[in-house]
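Worked problem 6 (solution included).
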Amino acid sequence: MLFHLLVPLADQFGPLNLFRYLTFRTGAAVVTALVLCFVFGTPVIGWLRRHQASGQPIRDDGPARHLATKQGTPTMGGFLILLGIGSGTLLWADLTNRFVWVALLVTFGFGVVGFTDDYLKVIRAHHRGLPGRAKLAIEIAIAALAALLVMQELPPPLADGLALPVFKDIVLALGWFFVPMAALVVVGASNAVNLTDGLDGLAIGPVMIAAATFTLIAYLVGNAVFADYLQLHHVPGAGELSVFCGALVGAGLGFLWFNAPPAMVFMGDTGSLAIGGALGVVSVITKHEIVLAIVGGLFVLETISVIAQVLSFRLTGRRVFRMAPLHHHYEQKGWAESTVVIRFWIIAVVLALVGLSTLKLR
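Solution. The predicted structure is:
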């Protein structure tokens, strides 16, 4: 919005040229999202407390100490994250860029699914919300629509191709199979973040790290000069997603202020599904889907731990881990919650650096 209001005036007032620069607008989106979360955080949490008598239902099959330490904490704090992302993006991004609208579509679409799930859990006072199949079907529909929109905007051969990191000239032509592949990336990322969201501050930290990484990736692939120098696939218009990712970083920082142990609020599915989907769709647009699996490797590990636990128990009657997802395994081994969170953040930083290194290994 501000981009469209102020840039046309730049010829009359030179300092407004600043609004033409992606780097400035990205930084402004970070600050805007952060400040809005700070300003509205306490009122929103107070409203959630008044309307959630018992807070988020705590699973009785989870760690026993959660029943004592987390009981009564309100959920749906993802509202704050969505407020930050939406405001930061709409204020500072070029709204004629269709990639921005696709990213917002997925983020808020998945946010609505998550809100519905959280709402049903709260009013039923039970950890089961929206039926799993219905939830997954809606997510797939939103992700498939986004994939079709992305195909229309991307230039050939990227429109239906899968780029491979390290191999600079290889793009696997998928044809219409690109749609289910892209939907799998978006839905998979969304639910992987959702599985990781089990401890105070655990999910939002790695999400911010991944979002910051993709802020840089979006800027580089959207810039023809940098993309050519690094031998990346240039995606015209993708640079504007750096503003979107910046807003996600700022919103994450603002939310973490209230979610730091002991958490005043949980993001719930309202937040976790939305921000996971956001990372997924940005990776699809920037043609770094495989790199997302590296940068977001922590989310992949958490998901694999659940799959391995379920398959092992069904096939052999034995459990691979003391409890799944993986963070609960380490809790059961006696690690303090803060220890698990900080060590997982360290892993996320290392994986982000590995993912970034693929930009130069060409």
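Discussion: The chain has one domain: 24-289.
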